[in-house]
Amino acid sequence: MIFRKSKGLVGLDIGSSAVKLVELKAQPKGDRKWKLLNLGVVPLSPEVIVDGSIMDSTMVVDAIAQLFSENKIKSGDVSIAVSGHSVIIKKITMAYMAEEELSESIRWEAESYIPFDIDDVYLDYQVLDEEDRGDGNMDVLLVAAKKEKVSEYVSVVQQSGKAPVIVDVDSFALQNALTANYELSDFQVTAVINIGASVMNINIMQGPTSVFWRDISFGGNIYTDAIQKDLGVDFETAEQLKRGESV
User: What is the rounded distance in angstroms from the CA atom of residue 83 to the CA atom of residue 219?
Assistant: First the structure.
């Protein structure tokens, strides 16, 4: 479940340019800070993951295993996230109802908003209104992720011998990281932006609540490709030049 909570997790970011790992430990109760236990990055060749699709699962599995081995991590529970065209996020308005009734109705309601076959997606939702707002309606955040996309990423984690216990959405993972570490006033507007190699995640928040989110197919690889084309060099050299390294 996308919004499921758990403890003792290792965060794993499977991106198109690298696999990144982070292990955190919550500090004593009342302290909002976290202690960084482990951090690791293993680069991937540009042909391993293309447009969010895993083309060479063996390379990704090896990268995950390498990260756990190098950092001597004992925990096998992993949290991952997905984004891109295979993920649909909608804020919808529904008649106010109890949780039990909502869980039964959400699938039928989702069919009006999801452009995929409802049987081909995983669905999750979060009620945004804690109480009846007075007009008989409530706002619900609806998330659908293609089963094919989720299965791709879950599979490589399982093949590495780890257990994927949470599948989140990239833009909401960014939001959680911010709200877990900072107090945000209800009137404060914050834009959280993650620029990856092939996708940029944007989440604009008012206070701790997300009001706009978007995944844009634009990232650092566009600059690498431009350098490669203009200077007539290979991808690796262009990547080094982009980072300001000597070649």
Answer: 14
